[in-house]
Amino acid sequence: MNSEHVDTTVGLCGLGNMGGAIAGRLAALTRVIGYDPDNRRLDEAVDRHGIAGATELAEVAAADVVVLSLPSPETSVEVCHTLAPLMGTGALILETSTVNPTDMWRLRDLCAPRSVRVVDAAILSGVAQMEAGSATLLLGGDEADLARAAPILEVLGRRRIRFGDVGSGMAAKVINNAVAHAVMVMLAEAGAMAVASGVSGEQLAELLADPEAGLSRPLTHRFVERVLPGAYEGGMPTEAARKDSTLALALAQQQGVPLFAIQGAHTVYEIALAQGLGRDDYASVARLWEQWTGRTFTR
Question: What is the Rg, in whole angstroms, of the alpha carbon atoms belonging to the chain?
């Protein structure tokens, strides 16, 4: 982390849980002007972190860089619509709120006529990690813009990963969250099946934490070593995976455990068999998405 003071002014819009943590990080680096329509949040951030409090959103436009930590894409658009005409040429807006790539493109296009630059700095971590300086940032934007923002990004995130142009960092964040949320449903289903079968939750967690078990191996072996290079010969056939999936559905039915994620995944294996992928490694289900989207996974 860059611990040296930076001679610039940073505006911060949104002082909720994450915004408050961001204020604390930024206040150690430079002068901060914070704004939140909730006066309680604003006063708390001023008292706790020593930032300057703006009573009107337009006051934040005096900053060289503005960081957004807002509750919705529409709020980000409204804030940028107000700030962009008032900001100086070449000013930067860093979007840390979780939005879609299309929302980032809207912000970019809204700010471009005013020569205000926009980058995405999605926060992968939680509030505690931000407060501790150990957060990970998923970045998207022009390399020159990100270089200019580097001192601020360094104080916000210990690890910073650029994925590409504006919107790519947000795409990575939204996709990561989708995986996490889907896996949580699957784990709840698996946990219910395990407990009903006499396997404790702790035993299931220990099993799934094994690199060779059902959580890590689909990523490290099947996605990385098979899907990305398109290597589907050998391995566990799709027809065998479909058989095991059928056993899981039967077990859940016997136990009275409702399934949603696991049931949905089984449908994919039925389709894969109907598409002639039965003898290929079961990672070949990825081919279905190649057919459906017209895009390839292969590097």
Answer: 24
Beta bridge partners of 137: 123, 160
Examine residue 208 and state whether it is found in any structural domain, yes or no. yes
Are the C-beta atoms of 80 and 111 separated by less than 8 Å? yes
Quote the CA–CA distance of 20 and 14 in Å, as a whole number: 8
CATH number for the domain spanning 208: value is: 1.10.1040.10
| 235 backbone dihedrals φ, ψ, rounded to 5° | 75, -165
Query: What tokens does 49 get?
Result: 């972190």
Say if residue 26 is in the same domain as residue 129.
Answer: yes
**pLDDT tens string 106-145:** 999 999 999 999 999 999 999 999 999 999 999 999 999 9
Task: Answer for the pair 204, 190: CB distance below 8 angstroms, yes or no.
Answer: yes
How many C-alpha atoms does 265 have within 13 Å on its Cβ side?
A: 20
Residue pair 35/59 in contact by the 8 Å Cβ criterion? yes
**Cβ contact 287:281 at 8 Å:** no
Last residue of a domain, one of 149, 166, 183: 166
- Determine if the pTM surpasses 0.85: yes
Pair (37, 125) in one structural domain: yes
Instruction: Quickly state the pLDDT bin for 7 (edges 50, 70, 90).
Output: confident
Residue 3: HSE in the Cβ half-sphere, 13 Å Cα cutoff: 1
Helix (H) or strand (E) holding 34: strand 31-35
